[in-house]
Amino acid sequence: MLAGAILLFGGTAIAAPAEEGSVAVAVSMATTFPTTARSACTHVAAAAAYPVAPKPEAAPPLQGRVTDTTGVLSAACASELTDRLAALEQRLGVQVAILLVGSTGQSTIEQFATTVFDQWKLGKAEVNNGLLLVAALNDHTVRIEVGYGLEGTIPDIVAGRIIRERIVPAFRENRIEAGISDALDALTHEMMPADVAAPEPPTPATALDGRDEAYETAAATATDAANPPPRDARAGGEKYQSNGLPERKRPNTGGVRFWFLLGVANVVLGVVAQWRKLRRRVALLAAWLVAAVVPVVMLPVGAIFNGNLEAMLGAAAFVPAAAGVGPCLLGINLFRSARVRKITAIVGGTLFMIVAIGREMDYSVGEVLSGIFGVLCVLAVIWAKLTGSGSSSSSSSSGSRSPSSSDSFRGGGGSSGGGGASGRW
């Protein structure tokens, strides 16, 4: 009896620290992402036909991180999924969107997913780290579309396993909310860095029917045999973060600096030509020749334009005018007009400050200038609309209004890499 008591209380004392440590780990992970211990995604959908859009092949408007055109998700579940996706983007910078439709029409689920992904532009343009989970409920098809930058983290075989183990069993029982929630848990686990990743949630207890057991066994064997290579050992020499996303390289501004100095040189040429009272035709011709010859002599044109003949021919016609004639005309008018000097100083100072702020935010000069150009184009369009006919502008503005969404989520300019997996239930 004494030995039994020692074993009983000794085992309890030994087991207590481990249990206490596991609670600490769980609490630590709970502060990283919203947990699903008391998930709101438990509603069981009624087995009925879901609404289909008039043009089911077209991508629906992006309503937020969760776009449900079928009405199958409860408001509480949609809100919970939105919060979890927002936390995932804030933590890892990954843009994940969920789309539920009735049918994809004549398009396959793969074609439809690619169309939606590219139109919504999920993920950042420089790394393409977007992911789309789309399900057509009437068609009984589902797909996980993965951006190119996430294909190392979510390879096709992992996406297929998540569909088979998380989505298909739940969808067969009309537990649409639970299937999506479980799939999001698994995707989050795969994208989390290895040093902070929580244990993957257990596979739902619902077993697949007998016709799929052999297939599941073979798929599990293939999954174990085809583990993706370590993130730091991938080919190409590109550095990756611990979560599998490629590190963003600091942009090289040497090319931008060259073209800027070339433009400044032609501005100086225009000032000198006006000061020496040279003919304007002579000055502009000299600037054109400088802008046409110097890039060929100083830089490997084939490397700049990647050997693309059309790009080089277009540059031969555009660069001399943009980097030669334009700056030369500016230099001539800088010498002649105080108003031009004042406007140039204001615009130049503003551009310098914007570029400096952009560089501090790790954007390249080209990206900053492209953004400024885009904003100017938008302002020009708005100005043209405002100065146009009042009746047409008012009618067009009233016709273009759309219901607002509580989620201001927008794509970051990414595109689909064609990776992912599909399934049926």
Provide structural commentary.
With 425 residues, the protein is of the alpha/beta class. It has three domains: 28-245, Diaminopimelate Epimerase, Chain A, domain 1, CATH 3.10.310; 255-336, no CATH class; 349-384. The protein has 13 helices and five strands. It has helices at residues 2-30, 75-92, 109-120, 156-172, 176-191, 213-225, 254-275, 280-298, 301-304, 309-336, 338-360, 365-387, 390-399, and strands at 66-68, 95-101, 130-136, 141-147, 416-424. The chain has a five-stranded mixed β-sheet with strand order 1-2-3-4-5. Helix 2 (75-92) links the parallel strand 1 (66-68) and strand 2 (95-101). The longest helix has 29 residues, at 2-30. The protein is elongated, with a radius of gyration of 29 Å.
- Domains counted in the coordinates: how many? 3
CATH class of the largest domain: Alpha Beta
What do we call the CATH topology of the largest domain? Diaminopimelate Epimerase, Chain A, domain 1
Instruction: Report the biggest beta sheet as strand number plus sense, adding barrel if it closes.
Output: 5 strands, mixed
Overall average residue pLDDT: 72
Radius of gyration, in Å, reads 29 Å
Number of strands: 5
- The CA-CA distance between the termini, in Å, is 57 Å
